[in-house]
Amino acid sequence: MNKPNDIAGSPLLRYSSLTSPLSAGKKRGPSSVYKVVRTARLYEQIVQQIEDSILQGSLKAGDQLPAERELAQKFGVSRTAVREAVKALREKGLVEAYSGRGTFVTDGTSQAIKQSLEMMVKIGQPEGSVHLAEVRAILEPEIAALAAVRCEEQHIVSMAEAVAVMDQAKRDPDAYIEADLDFHLALAEAASNPLILSLLDSIVGLLREQRLRIFNVEGGPERGQYHHKRILEAVRDHDPEKAKASMRAHLKQIREDSQAATSSPDVAGLNL
User: Fold this and answer.
1) Same domain for 100 and 119?
2) Domain boundary at 105, 130, 147, which?
3) What's the pLDDT at 228?
4) Residues 76-124: tens digit of each pLDDT
5) Which pLDDT does position 20 carry in this prediction?
6) What is the pLDDT of residues 209-249, one digit of tens each?
7) Secondary structure (3-state) at 26
8) What is the mean pLDDT of the chain?
9) Are residues 139 and 161 in the same domain?
10) Confidence at residue 225, expressed as pLDDT on a 0 to 100 scale
């Protein structure tokens, strides 16, 4: 039986220092970021090691974790164990995973904000829903305008990929909704302000159930796609005013579809 790789090595400060696999049994420094785990509940030990690295400052907010396959190799475990560990870290608010872009260390504030907002909306219904809609109306058009000015090619590619997924998923609510959230998060990333990204991440997380209701409103996905494509076009053209207007129109469409969902006994949901 082969012995798992010994992954002891120099302290990790950035993802770039983890891009080369370490040789089996080879130690490269007096301290170690990761140690091979060998006992039951492997994912908990992985979580503990990564959490310790964050607390000690070896991993910092914004650092990208290695890919799932590479982490499995470094820890000497299965990819399933790594996947469970990343899920646990996300629940703790220590990392955030973005489709097609990877898993990144957070500062923990996004999860705290998200939990606070969820509680406020649940306790304050229906007023909480109205307040959240107002926040989106204030925040997201300006995000779109900033994105149009500051976006880089990678952001446009991410948004275009999300739109393509939604085009193919008009009969698949889960895939459509996740791509929808990815689109708005990519837009927030393009604004190049980490506070904006954290705030929007907290808000859109509240909308998953509501988006499911809209998905079931006749024509809802098609109307959403019309506006997504107009927003993408404005950002690609670096036209902040057009991006702002397109986002406002999209939010108006969401409100109208939400009202239709609320009035329908088959798709009753949140009025956001």
Assistant:
1) no
2) 105
3) 97
4) 888 888 888 998 888 787 888 887 788 998 866 555 566 555 555 555 5
5) 34
6) 668 778 888 888 999 999 999 999 999 999 999 999 999 99
7) coil
8) 78
9) yes
10) 95
156 and 229 Cβ atoms separated by less than 8 Å: no
**Residues 133 and 256 placed together within one structural domain of the fold:** yes
Residue spans of alpha helices (H) in 9-59: 42-56
Q: Which amino acid is it at 64?
A: Q
Identify the domain containing residue 194 by its residue range.
109-263
Separation between Cα atoms, residue 72 and residue 77, nearest integer Å: 5
Q: Residue 93's domain is classified under what CATH number?
A: 1.10.10.10
DSSP string covering 128-176: HHHHHHHHHHHHHHHHHHHHHHH--HHHHHHHHHHHHHHHH-TT-HHHH
Task: Look at the alpha carbons of 231, 232, 234, 238 in this order and tell me if their dihedral is positive or negative.
Answer: positive
- 4 inside domain: no
pLDDT digits (tens, 9 = 90+) for 155-172: 999 999 999 999 999 889
Locus of tokens 């275009």: 160
Q: Bridge partners of 96? A: 104
What's residue 205's pLDDT? 64
Regarding whether 90 and 114 lie in a shared domain, the answer is no
Final residue of a structural domain among 84, 105, 126: 105
The DSSP secondary-structure symbol of 64 reads: B
